[in-house]
Amino acid sequence: MKTIVQTAAFNLGAEVNAMSQGRTDIGAIASFVGLARDVNDGSGVQAMTLEHYPGMTEKALLALVEEARSRWTLLDVTLIHRVGRLLPGDPIVLVAVASQHRGEAFAACEFIMDALKTRVPFWKKEETPQGERWVEARASDDAAAARWDES
Amino acid sequence: MKLRVLYFARLRERFGLADEALDFAGSTAADLIAHLQTRGGVWAEELAAGRAFRVAINQDIVTLDAPLADNAEVAIFPPVTGG
Lengths: 151, 83
Fold this sequence. Notes:
With 151 residues, chain A is an alpha+beta fold.
């Protein structure tokens, strides 16, 4: 299990290869990468800066992985989230989940992202032609996270 | 009780403050919010009933009825927007 907050970019291929290196019990790895977009809420985005709450962020990421492990049988999880200034096209977040079968890997990967969106203290500030603005939380993210409470 | 209070993101900018040490007489997170509202101005505006903000005590997000303890680290911040 690996949870990291970092400013540097990450490499999906390298992370996924590292998960299965030297072991043959993994049958499935599902992964998700979130990227910085060049448009949001109807205006162009030239860059964004991610702020976080050092200390709580690391604890909250670890708690997400532990909750996923309590819900599904997982062989490994890698969760990396970047902070600092990012440009459109830059990778922001990586989740990779290894399990014996695909169902658990898919479900746990989606759960971790949905929960991260509402529980882990990161905030995005965008640079647009109209000036800087803080990204507002979306009700659809709360709804996505709430789905997992019912199952 | 003595508290360390942290502010993040939009609230840090609006309050013009990242953290402060407080000597506080209340007992819950709600009491602390009420105390901060009495500062008026942006404090009253941003922490008004119905405004969306989150409170964490010792790095766990809590509801406003959560009790505070001496030397707690309290953080007040907007709903998170990572991912």
